[in-house]
């Protein structure tokens, strides 16, 4: 698995505001969208394109456009939904599929409670969106699921990753070709409840939780 960690002052600034527990949900959602645009720019460097003839007002030429089949974007509900708008702004022609997964906070087992994806993903490039990579359980399950459906190129976009989760993911996908991970930043560690430290808390709650 290839891992890329963004290293950019604008990313650092936006993540610091995200981390602040006093940042309200509307600002949090806006910042997540902005961070996804920066992540997606890097993460789509390997997106497949094909030649197309086009005619400018001046001359005929050959340009490059996204290849078919179209890329598939998969946000992991709930928190990954906060990254969807930013991603589809950059990739408006992508298809979108959904996976609902929740971590049991006691056992850390992953429960898949919703799935709406094409049956056959053979030859598809898939972009998985989930802001938090903690133990890695959710992403490992997701990647296995997508590979079983035939996806041959899987790129995960996460905002914060813990070293423990990155390591687990690396082992979980060992031997698989064309799996990539793009992180906005890597944090220090997990705490005893498997939350990322310093992290930003529960991303789903920060995005969609009720105001206190
Ligand atoms: O790496 P892991 O240990 O698997 O943890 C990461 C998962 O936890 C969060 O989702 P959560 O289960 O809280 O669901 P939510 O998005 O509905 O809040 C996060 O969005 C990831 O999906
Ligand atoms: O720190 C964490 C860990 C898992 N899920 C989150 O939303 N935050
Ligand atoms: Mg959550």
What is the structure about, briefly put?
The chain has 212 residues and is an alpha/beta fold. The protein is 31% helix and 32% strand.
For this entry, give a set of tags.
212 residues; alpha/beta; Rossmann fold; 6 helices; 31% helix; globular; binds 1-O-pyrophosphono-5-O-phosphono-alpha-D-ribofuranose; binds uracil; binds magnesium ion
Detailed description of the structure:
By secondary structure, this protein is α/β, with parallel strands linked by helices. The chain has one domain (2-208): Rossmann fold, CATH 3.40.50. 31% of the residues lie in helices and 32% in strands. The protein has helices at 9-19, 25-43, 84-90, 137-148, 163-172, 203-208; strands spanning 2-5, 49-55, 60-66, 72-77, 95-96, 98-103, 110-116, 125-129, 132-133, 153-161, 179-186, 189-190, 196-197. Strands 1, 4, 5, 6, 7, 8, 9, 10 and 11 form a nine-stranded mixed β-sheet that branches. α1 (9-19) runs antiparallel to α2 and α2 crosses α3 (84-90). The radius of gyration is 18 Å and the shape is globular. The mean pLDDT is 96. Bound molecules: 1-O-pyrophosphono-5-O-phosphono-alpha-D-ribofuranose (PRP), uracil and magnesium ion (MG). Magnesium ion is lined by residues 79, 202, 204.
């Amino acid at each position: 698995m290839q891992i890329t960690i963004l290293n950019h002052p604008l990313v650092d600034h936006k993540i610091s505001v995200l981390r602040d527990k006093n940042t309200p949900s509307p600002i949090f959602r806006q910042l997540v969208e902005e961070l996804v645009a920066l992540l997606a720019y890097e993460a789509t460097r390997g997106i497949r394109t094909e030649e197309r003839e086009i005619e400018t007002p001046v001359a005929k030429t050959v340009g490059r456009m996204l290849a078919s089949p179209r890329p598939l974007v998969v946000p992991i509900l709930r928190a990954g939904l906060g990254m969807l708008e930013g991603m589809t702004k950059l990739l408006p022609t992508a298809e979108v599929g959904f996976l609902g997964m929740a971590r049991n906070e006691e056992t850390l087992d992953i429960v898949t409670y919703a799935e709406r994806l094409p049956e056959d993903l053979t030859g598809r490039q898939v972009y998985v969106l989930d802001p938090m990579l903690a133990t890695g359980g959710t992403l490992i399950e997701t990647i296995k699921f997508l590979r079983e459906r035939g996806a041959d190129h899987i790129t995960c976009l996460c905002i914060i990753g813990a070293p423990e989760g990155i390591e687990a993911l690396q082992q979980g996908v060992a031997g698989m070709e064309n799996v990539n991970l793009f992180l906005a930043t890597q944090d220090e560690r997990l705490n005893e409840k498997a939350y990322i430290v310093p992290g930003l808390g529960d991303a789903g709650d920060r995005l969609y939780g009720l105001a206190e």
